[in-house]
Write a structure and sequence with these properties.
Chain lengths: 345, 224
Amino acid sequence: MSNRLLKVNIQKKLKEFDLDVDFELKKGCLGILGPSGCGKSMTLKSIAGIVDPDKGIVSLTMDEETVYFDSDSKINLKPQKRNVGYLFQNYALFPNMTVEENVAIGLSKNDDRKIVSEMIKRFHLEGLEKRYPRQLSGGQQQRVALARILAYGPDVILLDEPFSALDTYLKEQLRIELVNMLKDFYGFSILVTHDRDEAFQFCDELLILDQGKIIARGETHEIFEDPKKVEVARLTGCKNISKIEIIDEHHFKSLDWGITFEVSEKITPNITHVGIRAHDFTPAEKDDVNLINTVNASKLEMPFEWEITLENGLWWKIEKQMHNHDFEIPKYLKINPEDILLLEE
Amino acid sequence: MTDWSPIFISMKTASLSILVTFFLGLIVAWILIKIKNDTVKIVLDGVFTLPLVLPPTVVGFFLLYIFGVRGPIGKFFLDFFTVKIAFSWTATVIAAVVMSFPLMYRSARGAFEQVDSNLLDAGRTLGMSEWKIFWKVLFANALPGIISGGILAYARGLGEFGATAMIAGNIAGQTRTLPMAVYSEVAAGNMGEAFHYVIFIVIISFFVIFIMDYVTIRKEKQWK
């Protein structure tokens, strides 16, 4: 396990911004989270060799190092020679071929029979061998696409927004399947998504991309707990973000909500914003710290939670039972000084 | 007594020319969609489409200029192989190929462009050679469009008149194709003879279109 490394350092001029991504992966799965059009897919395509970066290095070490791309020594390995599997957003199954033919397409003639039937079994596609992709459901299509990639035996699997084409119910089930499959996979995998739940569930390590630049990298849990930057907080789903005016080391005034808060962490001068997750508020008594008045708040009922919007624009979310349709908004809310996220621009 | 030679000449010309046009059109369309420079693309597209919009006699004029005994290619063949191209049967094929080429090329290109580019990239990441990707993915998925382009090109080649008249002439038994024969018979006042040829052309044309449409529809149904 020790001698494995995926090195990616690429620069490419794009229409809207310049892509500049530099990271190394030593094991398992990496998630890339970012808004649409931030360069996520472009990064994956550069690793696969479908798109050529302007400058940089892409190399894979599996005991021995294989250089995929190196602008300095003019190396640019064809996608055919890279042994990288790519799961496209729309799965890119060949519509003119049956399930069986699709799975077998990357194999040389002699060894395909056995591997194909193995993959068909592993991905629960028995009985569908002679069907064409159009005759399959979205979930089945994704399984065929994965079977096709794994039959080819890649060192790296790239997953480009694998669930965006599916409806919610299917999504949840397939996520579990995919997580389990990747656990058994011996190589590297990179999952690209704009969905924070997916990123959170999938990978232990996370990289956040915005406008072609890496703005955060680290363990998934740490990034969600302490996003540090405004953009990262927003992408990890923080609903309430405001510009602040620092009062002293532990107090600030939020400019958007007009409330003064106390924080347990020391406020350093580089802090410009504050973030409060919508789930972190709790009902409060009149004399608690960080008190917020809920006068004129409006509520919206969701199947499993209440969404409350306060007069000053703050969001509060609280879980509820499906059959419970009544909810009295408490007079006051509070936020624990430890739960406030201090952010910089 | 009806002279059957125009029928044989036309069938021979149309069959050989569609064979040439079909593959040439595919290859040129494939090359063109791979070109990334837009200006080069537009210029080349213009050149390849020109025979479709120019009057056939103008195309014939250019062909005569190139393949005539004093033209660059015509002279070359005459000097080195002592073969005269203009006003020979070969000239009917050249005229049919040039006139039907734009239809084949444009249909093939349109059909190729309709194929999801992810499919080609998926093929590449699965280790398929470019040649295999072309036939098994691009060609196979563009087939309905390519076939309809082929039908149009075949019909165009079979009906070619203007450019053929210019470069191949109207020599009975040699370069007199069906459309030429219809013209000649009508000019000579033999409406009955002309009618035989007309009937024949209509039957072949209809038959070819019917067969190819049938194949296309069956193939599409299979995938869906």
